[in-house]
Amino acid sequence: MITREMIISDIITRHPETVAVFKKYNLDCYECQIADLETLEHGAGVHKVSIDELLDAINRSLK
Question: pLDDT at residue 20 above 80?
Answer without folding.
Answer: yes
